[in-house]
């Protein structure tokens, strides 16, 4: 090689013009096929998408990716079904556009189902295209984002289509914990088809035009005699605020895709630590935040919004909230300290006094596990009066669900920094990333109350109404327990800190914790309570 210099090719374009290499006739056919692929189900059907307020599959990808970076794969791949006149219904690409491109300069794989082609229905071929990009994304370590708009299994393909779905499910599971997987539901998603998004890390929906259900309104009517609309059964509002299936919803396709670009900016490309993103810092790590102390009322029974506290502390007040409409007694979201992504979790006294309940436990547990799988440090703000009492909670299995959050925090080996802003009572004190669950750095603000329960309840149980003087007893208990001194004396909090120093301290801790290592005992996997 060293002695033979590469030949100089003067006219690069001569290659494709050479009829012996690429026959002109074939070139025309190829171009025609490409044109057909770009048109999907045709202009009329694209107009129908627009009339619904939706974009076409390709328009969506254009918005998702940085300009001109999308590289399509399998544009010409076609189905091989001969049933029900399907030979006459061949569309190059087979109802799904797949490939990769850049989002804010970083590689991301994506598929976009094309509703204009046979309702975006999933054939064996369509599934193979999905699996191919998932496999590629896993190999190179890049996220996969799926834009779902499909009538489900392609009826003409029968079991081939069902098999295709199962192949996709398996690929989802194989990729779980290796690369971030995000689903955006932008049209119908029904039947077994819902289970591919359900196995991804995040599901987002578009208001009014998307829906998800296992069985549609007609089947519901036949089986249970309930009358319910598509929207009330599986529209975005149901899934972001009732079922907890979806992690957020957006007004339209454009807003959803813009939000995905913002979310991807916070996420690593894979579970390889080196892919954690670092944004250029514009907010100094040693910024004092005197205003946070004023946000927390002195009266322990007065509510405040933990989101205000979080916004003051993180870089530029920028938080991408996950599940903002579900279990609002706990806040979860991505933010940054000195340009490095963290997962923020905070009890929110504004709803249910910040109690932990079934939904809050599930919401936060899944978020903690995502962060842990992808090396994202956890910063927890605690103001929790305990678990929510009541038969509804007990019958619903709060023991099992609360255990998920406890388990998730205990298992997480990423850097864990915890700040108790006010109450940390009972079992919830232990659960919320306490020192005992191997949190790395724990702090309390001076007004924190760390105890088994509030003063009134405690005095009642301690003295059963036979105390000397209830007010005196409460004062004594408050003096002894309703402050962070004992926890600090035990080393359960590393320090009692001035609230205005909180950002500075968190930034310092996260810096030293970047090299944290936790030895692991080999095991197949743990058995988190489900
Ligand atoms: C083949 C389909 C299709 C499907 C829609 N189309 N769904 N073709 N297989 N599953 C076609 C239609 O025939 C139509 O073709 C075009 O897509 C647009 O559909 P319309 O019905 O005109 O659109 P719209 O009125 O908006 O209704 C959308 C819809 C409806 C609600 C999704 O099409 C529908 O109910 N489809 C069937 C849904 C279904 O039962 N899927 C199977 C689910 S079970 P033309 O040529 O007229 O444009 C499942 C199992 C997965 O998915 C199992 C995994 C384990």
From TrEMBL:
Example of a GO cellular component annotation carried by this entry: mitochondrion
Regions crossing the membrane: none
Q: Which residues form the CoA carboxyltransferase N-terminal domain?
A: 23-279
Give GO terms for biological process: fatty acid catabolic process
GO-annotated molecular function: propionyl-CoA carboxylase activity; transferase activity
**CoA carboxyltransferase C-terminal domain ranges (all copies):** 284-525
**Pathway, per Swiss-Prot/TrEMBL?**
Metabolic intermediate metabolism; propanoyl-CoA degradation; succinyl-CoA from propanoyl-CoA: step 1/3
Question: Which reaction is catalysed here?
Answer: butanoyl-CoA + hydrogencarbonate + ATP = (2S)-ethylmalonyl-CoA + ADP + phosphate + H(+); propanoyl-CoA + hydrogencarbonate + ATP = (S)-methylmalonyl-CoA + ADP + phosphate + H(+)
Alphabetic keyword roster = Transferase
Q: What class of enzyme is it?
A: ligase
Q: What is its EC number?
A: 6.4.1.3
Pfam families (UniProt xref): Carboxyl_trans
Is RNA-binding given among the entry's keywords? no
* Oligomer status and interactors: The holoenzyme is a dodecamer composed of 6 PCCA/alpha subunits and 6 PCCB/beta subunits.
- Name the protein family: Belongs to the AccD/PCCB family.
**Protein name in the entry:** Propionyl-CoA carboxylase beta chain, mitochondrial
According to its UniProt entry, this protein's organism is: Nitzschia inconspicua
């Amino acid at each position: 090689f060293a002695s033979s210099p590469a030949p100089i090719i003067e006219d690069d374009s001569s290659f494709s013009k050479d009829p012996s290499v690429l026959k002109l006739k074939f070139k025309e056919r190829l171009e025609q096929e490409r044109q057909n692929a770009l048109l999907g189900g045709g202009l009329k059907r694209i107009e129908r998408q627009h009339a619904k307020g939706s974009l076409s599959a390709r328009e969506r990808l254009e918005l998702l990716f940085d300009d001109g970076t999308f590289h399509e794969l399998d544009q010409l791949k076609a189905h091989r079904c001969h049933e029900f006149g399907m030979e006459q219904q061949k569309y190059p690409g087979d109802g799904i556009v797949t490939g990769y491109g850049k989002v804010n300069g970083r590689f991301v794989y994506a598929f976009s189902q094309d509703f204009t082609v046979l309702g975006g229905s999933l054939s064996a071929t369509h599934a193979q295209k999905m699996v191919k990009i998932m496999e590629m994304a896993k190999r190179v370590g890049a996220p996969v984002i799926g834009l779902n708009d499909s009538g489900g299994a392609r009826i003409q393909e029968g079991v081939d289509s069902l098999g295709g779905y199962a192949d996709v499910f398996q690929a989802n599971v194989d990729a779980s914990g290796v690369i971030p997987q995000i689903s955006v539901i932008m049209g119908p998603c029904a039947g077994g088809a819902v289970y591919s998004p359900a196995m991804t890390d995040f599901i987002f929906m578009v208001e009014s035009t998307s829906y998800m259900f296992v069985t549609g309104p007609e089947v519901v009517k036949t089986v249970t005699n309930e009358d319910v609309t598509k929207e009330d059964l599986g529209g975005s509002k149901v899934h972001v605020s009732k079922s907890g299936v979806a992690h957020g919803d957006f007004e339209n396709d454009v807003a959803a895709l813009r939000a995905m670009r913002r979310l991807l900016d916070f996420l690593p490309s894979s579970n390889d630590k080196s892919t954690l993103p670092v944004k250029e810092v514009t907010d100094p790590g040693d910024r004092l935040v005197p205003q946070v102390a004023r946000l927390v009322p002195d009266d322990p029974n007065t509510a405040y919004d933990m989101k205000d506290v979080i916004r003051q502390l993180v870089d530029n007040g920028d938080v991408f909230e996950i599940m903002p409409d579900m279990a609002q007694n706990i806040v979860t979201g991505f933010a940054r300290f000195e340009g490095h992504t963290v997962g923020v979790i905070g009890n929110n006294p504004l709803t249910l006094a910040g109690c932990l309940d079934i939904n809050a436990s599930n919401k936060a547990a899944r978020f903690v596990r995502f962060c842990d799988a992808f090396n994202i440090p956890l910063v927890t703000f605690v103001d929790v009066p305990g678990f929510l009492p009541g038969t509804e909670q007990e019958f619903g299995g709060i023991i099992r669900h609360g255990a998920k959050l406890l388990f998730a925090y205990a298992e997480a080996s990423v850097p864990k920094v915890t700040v108790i802003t006010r109450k940390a009572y009972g079992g919830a004190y232990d659960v919320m990333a306490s020192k005992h669950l191997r949190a790395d750095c724990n702090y309390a603000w001076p007004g924190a109350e760390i105890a088994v329960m509030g003063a009134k309840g405690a005095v009642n149980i301690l003295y059963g109404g036979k105390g000397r003087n209830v007010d005196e007893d409460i004062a004594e208990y408050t003096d002894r327990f309703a402050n962070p001194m004992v926890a600090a004396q035990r080393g359960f909090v590393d320090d009692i800190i001035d609230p205005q120093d909180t950002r500075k301290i968190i930034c310092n801790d996260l810096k030293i914790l970047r090299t944290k290592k936790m030895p692991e005992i080999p095991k197949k996997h743990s058995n988190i309570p489900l």
